[in-house]
Design goal:
alpha+beta, 7-stranded mixed β-sheet, binds zinc ion
């Protein structure tokens, strides 16, 4: 079966400045396999404008796809929509190191769409921007309840520094030359 991401650009390449629109709505599984943040059946909505240059095609537009994950602070479900703003270049003869290749009369949107979605989907999502997270001492969800644990213990980096200072003082005391 022909990939829906292959776009024939013979027509738009005929004259520089020509524009072609591409609208696609394809399931995640058509290009991304086994990413726990993305439901294989979720739809990737692709809305692009291809504009020909003398030496390639500029692709502008947007890609949207819903994601589903776990909040990194409170471990409750977190969900949202990945929105990518696209501004990419395709070239027949690659002179720009960031350009994607044009092969014959075809431009394959799949690698570009895949890169954008994977890059823009959050790695460490929050259920909401001000999520209070779990209490590090008792584990209570601080979005839902308050506990009596008070402030968390001092930053371990400071206690390491304290330990270093104590060791230094001890060595100075035991060294007869000081
Ligand atoms: Zn949360
Ligand atoms: Zn607590």
């Amino acid at each position: 079966m022909r990939s829906p991401y292959l776009v024939n650009i013979a027509e738009v390449m005929r004259r520089a400045g020509s524009v072609q629109h591409v609208h696609l709505a394809e399931p995640v599984e058509s290009i991304i396999d086994g990413d726990p943040r993305l439901d294989p059946a979720a739809v990737i909505t692709i809305d692009l404008q291809l504009e020909s240059l003398t030496d390639g095609i500029v692709v502008h537009g947007t890609i949207d796809v819903p994601w589903d994950d776990t909040c990194r602070r409170c471990l409750n479900p977190a969900a949202g929509v990945t929105h990518s703003d696209i501004d990419e270049l395709y070239q027949q003869v690659i002179t720009d190191p960031d350009a994607f290749p044009i092969e014959g009369d075809q431009l394959d949107l799949a690698p570009m769409v895949r890169d954008a979605v994977l890059l823009d989907t959050p790695q460490a999502p929050l259920c909401r921007p001000d999520c209070a997270g779990l209490c590090p001492t008792c584990g209570i969800d601080r979005n839902e309840a308050t506990c009596g644990c008070g402030e968390p213990p001092a930053d371990p980096r400071w206690s390491q520094l304290d330990g270093l200072r104590q060791a230094l003082e001890a060595s100075q005391q035991s060294d007869p030359a000081v």
